[in-house]
């Protein structure tokens, strides 16, 4: 067998090569798509866990702010009691402390409230990756 015959022995007609490459691409696509979706699900899971951690931190901040705010309110009530009963400087001190504590509690509540914004719970990276994958699949299929 000479060199020309050996080169031609493994060659297929043009139509079969095109069909084989399409079949090969479809097989490759059928293997890669499930793996891609598995990775996308893992990314979504990681983002949701991150969102849950943010939610837990927000709940802690709101709870802490509410406790401090309640303490300030109690001190303000005590200052009203002191003011009505004594009409002297102790109520003024309690009033000042109560106002300061309430301002701190309000600031804590507002910072915790920001953790509950819907944008913190949207899996941005997963949605972006899915859009890119969808575009890539469209390019491969067309």
Automatic annotation (TrEMBL):
This is Phage holin family protein. It comes from the Bacteria. The lineage of its organism: Bacteria, Pseudomonadati, Pseudomonadota, Gammaproteobacteria, Pseudomonadales. The chain crosses the membrane at residues 59-82, 88-109. Keywords: Membrane, Transmembrane, Transmembrane helix.
């Amino acid at each position: 067998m000479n060199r020309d015959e050996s080169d031609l022995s493994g060659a297929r007609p043009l139509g079969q090569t095109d069909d084989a490459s399409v079949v090969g691409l479809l097989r490759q696509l059928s293997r890669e798509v499930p793996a891609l979706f598995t990775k996308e699900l893992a990314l979504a899971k990681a983002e949701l866990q991150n969102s849950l951690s943010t939610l837990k931190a927000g709940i802690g901040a709101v709870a802490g702010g509410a406790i401090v705010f309640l303490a300030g309110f109690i001190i303000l009530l005590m200052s009203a009691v002191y003011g009505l009963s004594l009409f002297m400087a102790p109520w003024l001190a309690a009033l000042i402390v109560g106002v300061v504590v309430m301002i701190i509690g309000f600031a804590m509540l507002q910072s915790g409230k920001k953790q509950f914004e819907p944008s913190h719970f949207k899996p941005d990276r997963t949605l972006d990756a899915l859009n890119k994958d969808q575009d890539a699949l469209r390019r491969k299929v067309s």
